[in-house]
Amino acid sequence: MNILNYAFYKIYNHYSKVNDERFPLFTAAIYISVLEISFLFFIILSVNAIFYNDRLIATDFLELIGLNQIGGKIMVVIFCIVVHFINYLFYKKKITEIQKQYKMHSFNSWFRLWMLYLIGFLFFAIPICIFKLRN
Question: What is the mean pLDDT of residues 19-48?
């Protein structure tokens, strides 16, 4: 089972109650994109917190590649848009297959939507807490 596909299934089913064809797909794809990007953030900050406790090495990296300037911020926004667009196209093709696969899945009885939001929050909170505890 792919956890991202299951997360998409849960979010899509939740937002499909609105009865709009594009809205649930768009919203679920955005959440999957945010989850992927926050996981990348989690990895970068966790490595930084474990190996470099005196300074935030990610800040040095951002300065090195120029992401602390306006051009770098635009590149990050473009990266996020591209990630979302790829997820949107991917899940648009696989939506019926995913719904069939997870409709009667055993996770449906105990896995709730709020748990997905908690996972996204923890991807940000855990490395920050590790960094604060090490200093």
Answer: 82
